[in-house]
Design a protein that fits this description.
Elements (H helix, E strand, L loop, with lengths): L11 E4 L4 E3 L2 E3 L3 E4 L2 E8 L2 E4 L4 E13 L2 E14 L4 E3 L2 E3 L6 E3 L4 E3 L3 E3 L11
Parallel strand pairs: 1-4, 2-5, 3-5, 4-6, 5-7, 6-7, 7-8, 8-9, 8-10, 8-11, 9-12, 10-13
Organism: Acetobacter malorum DSM 14337
Protein name: Polymer-forming cytoskeletal protein
């Protein structure tokens, strides 16, 4: 395969395995990959992926959030969230625009109070 056939990798911020990052504020137009531990943090990114072995708490805002590790005590706002079979989600508030944006594996582990919210249904105009 020639170099022109290869797609460039999407740039990303990687919080590496074994790292501990408390109280971080990160606003990036890039993807964020969490392989370490991020606590009490605010992250805004195009995509956020919490890898197996990774953990996050705080406020996460992205177009797409993929949870393969631990998500606890978090507020998540996303167009789409994927909670995989290796995920553990505990005491979180997750907001998506519609049900199509929410995908949860049947064997994902959810603990404590985990709430999923969507915008209220639009009121239809009533005819007099």
């Amino acid at each position: 395969m020639s170099q022109t056939d290869q797609k460039p990798k999407k740039p990303s911020v990687i919080i590496g395995q074994g790292s501990y990052t408390p109280d971080m504020v990160l606003k990036a137009p890039l993807a964020v990959k969490i392989e370490g531990v991020v606590t009490n943090s605010t992250i805004e990114a195009s995509d956020i992926n919490i890898h197996p072995g990774g953990a996050a708490s705080g406020t996460l805002t992205a177009s797409v959030v993929v949870v393969e590790g631990l998500l606890e005590k978090a507020v998540v706002k996303a167009d789409q969230i994927f909670i995989s079979d290796t995920a553990e989600v505990s005491d979180c508030e997750i907001e998506v625009p519609n049900a199509e944006g929410l995908k949860i594996s049947a064997i994902a582990k959810l603990y404590g109070k985990v709430t999923f919210t969507m915008p209220p249904r639009k009121q239809s105009a009533t005819k007099a």
